[in-house]
Amino acid sequence: MNDFTIARRRMVDEQVAARGIRDPRVLSAMLKVPRHKFVPEALASQAYTDYPLPIGEGQTISQPYMVGLMSEALMLAGEETVLEVGTGSGYQAAVLALIADRVFSLERIPELARQARRVLDANGYSKVNIRLTDGTYGWQEMGPFDGILVTAGAPQIPQNYLDQLAVGGRLVIPVGDRISQSLKRVTRTTSDQFQEETLVGCRFVPLIGNHGWQG
Ligand code: SAM
Questions:
Q1: Which residues does 32 contact at the CB level (< 8 Å), separation at least 6?
Q2: CATH domain 3-202 topology
Q3: pLDDT tens for residues 178-215?
Q4: Residue 25 alpha carbon to ligand 1 centre in Å
Q5: For the purposes of burial, counting CB atoms within 10 Å of the CB of 192, is it exposed (0-12), middle (13-18) or buried (19 or more)?
Q6: Distance from the CA of 12 to the center of ligand 1, in angstroms?
Q7: Would you please indicate which residues are annotated as catalytic (active-site) residues?
Q8: Where are the beta strands (DSSP E) in the chain?
């Protein structure tokens, strides 16, 4: 076992499983995805620490625990079609690729989308579809989605996400102000009914777009 494999095992045991993430498919995906490949080379030695890390363009790769929590909150069995908003480094998308059937991911910053595409392809996650766009519109042509995971903080829940959620599907999204948010899970219980839960407090970079924060 090399050092990164050992660090990854410790990350999953000590930061993710020890804090209550139980879904074996999520834990096994996080044991597989080489997180150090998704951070800037100079930060590879910190890839398995308990923090978000900068990935350029003022953006971050989320803390491992948060990736575990959000992935588990989608309650995926493996056959689902999932939309991620905020591709960033591509790490969360790679985890989703191992626990869902089809993965679509939206990113607004061209350099991040390009870099994520490169790393995902180089590590065997070519099935992730990335589109460069304002993700607050969702991706209507590819929906409805069994899961929608938003990895940037929104001022309120964009109606597009609710419209593009399949009945029985789950939306996981941080909602709050620009500094701190609450992680919400919204389940579409029937075509016109939604159930909302608050999971934890969190801090994400802002969701910037027409149905998010302005600039
Ligand atoms: N999921 C990412 C990962 O695994 O590295 C972390 C994402 S980072 C916390 C949030 C990302 O959301 C940034 O890359 C940011 O550019 C992106 N973002 C913000 N607003 C967006 C929007 N309207 N559409 C698409 N992406 C957006």
A1: 98
A2: Rossmann fold (3.40.50)
A3: 999 999 999 999 999 999 999 999 999 999 999 999 98
A4: 24
A5: exposed
A6: 23
A7: 62
A8: 53-56, 59-61, 81-85, 102-107, 128-132, 145-150, 165-176, 181-190, 193-202
Q: Whose CA is nearest to atom 11 of ligand 1?
A: 86
Q: Are 175 and 156 in contact (CB under 8 A)?
A: yes
pLDDT (tens digit per residue) in 82-108:
999 999 999 999 999 999 999 999 999
Contact (CB, 8 A) for 86 and 131: no
Residues 6 or more apart in contact with residue 183 via CB below 8 angstroms: 69, 70, 73, 172, 173, 174, 198, 199, 200, 201, 202
Which residues on adjacent β-strands are paired with residue 128? 103
Domains of the chain by residue range: 3-202
